[in-house]
Design a protein that fits this description.
Layout lengths: L2 E7 L9 H11 L9 H11 L5 H16 L4 H15 L5 H12 L3 E9 H11 L3 E9 L5 E6 L1 H4 L2 H11 L2 E10 L5 H5 L3 E5 L3 H10 L2 E6 L2 E5 L3
């Protein structure tokens, strides 16, 4: 029999932060990235914290910083730090999505995770939570096992709906009873492809879209979980 599938975003949906942000700051602490790297996105972070700008602008600045400084870094250094970050933060999850993952695992769902953080850290984090397959951004390695700064198949990882379709075919899964969990408008195509979409701690654009569609909206604040539009 074909397995049912559940697909989750990671950053801000399961993990209570961004794996990429924690990775960049750890690479700085380890002396692999220069101390000045954090200053490159610090202003965007402050504007987001002060609600003068949005989170997307902040995370884009972090991505640009990572891409700038990862060039020439040995894979062995990256891998060591990435595994340490994943191990350090593996329990820093939202209770609702953590419990949902565990429940679906017991129900024999095939669990997929997608993140726009580097695959090397997403895989370590996702596997620790019991995911069957993890997708992240794959950064190219040169002949000396150092990063070139280029991304492989960016068009694929940026299209979460396409990843879902690909996984369903490749792993012999079924979309009957399928579940998807996301938190921003970039997850809309993915959520439209499953039977039971869940918008968890959504940003404004996703929240408004979810309300129009009658999708589940779930918000976790401190130790309370609020459910809206329950299926």
């Amino acid at each position: 029999m074909k397995k049912k599938v559940a697909i989750f975003d990671i950053d801000g949906t399961i993990f209570r932060s961004s794996l990429l942000i924690e990775l960049v700051e750890s690479l700085v602490e380890e002396g692999i990235f220069p101390n000045t790297a954090i200053k490159e996105y610090e202003n965007k972070k402050i504007k987001w914290l002060d609600r003068e700008s949005d989170y997307e602008s902040y995370i884009r600045a972090v991505v640009e910083t990572f891409m700038k400084h990862i060039r020439g870094v040995p894979f062995s250094d990256f891998d060591r730090v990435a595994k340490a970050v994943a191990a350090k933060y593996k329990n820093r999850t939202y209770r609702y999505t953590r419990d949902l993952v565990q429940t679906l695992k017991k129900k024999n769902y095939y669990l997929l995770a997608i993140s726009h953080s580097p695959k090397g850290i997403v895989e370590s984090f996702g596997k620790a939570l019991g995911f069957d397959k993890v997708y992240g951004i794959f950064y190219e390695l040169g002949p000396t096992e150092r990063f070139t700064g280029n991304i492989i198949d960016l068009h694929l990882i940026m299209n979460k709906a396409a990843i879902l379709k690909r996984a369903v075919l490749k792993e012999n899964l079924t979309l009957t009873g399928s579940i998807g969990v996301g938190d921003t408008e970039s997850d809309i195509p993915l959520l439209e492809g499953v039977e039971h979409p869940i918008c968890f701690n959504p940003n404004e654009k996703l929240y408004k879209y979810a309300k129009r569609q009658g999708w589940d909206v779930v918000v976790e604040r401190k130790d309370v979980v609020y459910k809206i539009n329950k299926l």
